[in-house]
Design brief:
Strand order of the largest sheet: 6-7-8-3-9-10
Number of strands: 10
Largest sheet: 6 strands, mixed
Number of helices: 11
Oligomer: single chain
Distance between the termini: 73 Å
Amino acid sequence: MTESNMRKRLLDTKMVPVPSTSIVPERDVDKRPVLETRHLGIEFGGLRAVEDFNIAVGPTEICGLIGPNGAGKTTVFNLLTKVYQPTTGTVLINGKDTSGMSTEQANRMGIARTFQNIRLFGNMTVEDNVRIGLHNQIKYGMFSGILRLPSFWSGEKRQHQKAMELLSIFGMQDMADVKAGSLPYGAQRRLEILRALATNPSLLLLDEPAAGMNPHETEELMKTIIRIRDQFQIAVMLIEHDMNLVMGICEGICVLNYGRIIAKGTPEEIQRNPVVIEAYLGSQKKEGDA
């Protein structure tokens, strides 16, 4: 084929839109998704725990991942954060493929999370737990730390200021010197969120953040999640069983059942989706059935 014929063939090629079932907030439509998964899946001993999971999350979106117990929601979070390596598919963070990366590398790419079961360093202070999250922002080197050079002390000062700034989000500055393990349950939940936020993520994953909280604490948490999104201009994706929280703050919702997506949409669309209702409540028996 001559060069002119090749060029003509290229010019004759028509570009067409690629269909997508993903939705993002209108304000994010012209921006690259912070998270994109393509045909993501994992098997455990031949059992498909997650299959063909496709989603896009806008860079300032608050997104909910919901579904019945055992649907595979936490497994999805483990795949996104590289706790598990997928059997199939791809995870893109800010457009970059995370294939083969470790959890730490994925965190450096901009993804941070909390866990269903709180994982704090109970014998360390509240401030020190937050400062652990700041580890990837340390600017001084090993020798500066050993010799206590000026760069070490200036770095320590910056970390203290940053930790206190983060603690102020939940009004926890006065608890900075308290041991994390002695905090009430709700305060430990909040501290874990702050530690994740300290890693400077572009996507924050929250695994049942309202678990164990009373209605007042849950309402405050809802306001704080919105504040975090607005103040830090990041995306938040959460797993939660409290539907008042999910429907109150999530812009897009993805519903998972038996490891597969069964619905995606706005809160209003999800609430009236018959497939979602059946997944949560089960098929209604016909009148006259035993």
